[in-house]
Amino acid sequence: MPKFFIKTYGCQMNERDSEQVAHSLIERGYEAVAHEGEADVVLLNTCSVRDMAEQKALGKMGMLGQLAKRRPEVVFGFLGCMAQARGRALLKGLSHMDLVAGTQKFHRVADYVAELLEKKRARRMDDPRFSICDTEEEPGSQKTIRDQRLSPRQATAFVSIMQGCNMHCTFCIVPRTRGAERSRSIAEIVLEVRALVDRGIKEVTLLGQIVNLYGRHEFPKVGGKSPFVQLLEAVHAIDGLDRLRFTSPHPIGFRDDLLQAFVDLPKLAEHVHLPLQSGSNRILKAMHRTYTAEKYLALVERIRGTRREIAITTDVIVGFPGEDEEDYAQTRQLVEHVQFDNAFIFRYSTRRDTPAAEMSGQLSEQVKEERNQDLLRVVDSSAHRANERLVGRNVEILCEGPSRTNVARLMGRTRTNKIVVFEGDPALTGKLVPINITQANGFSLYGTPLMQT
Question: Is 374 a residue whose pLDDT tops 50?
Answer without folding.
Answer: yes
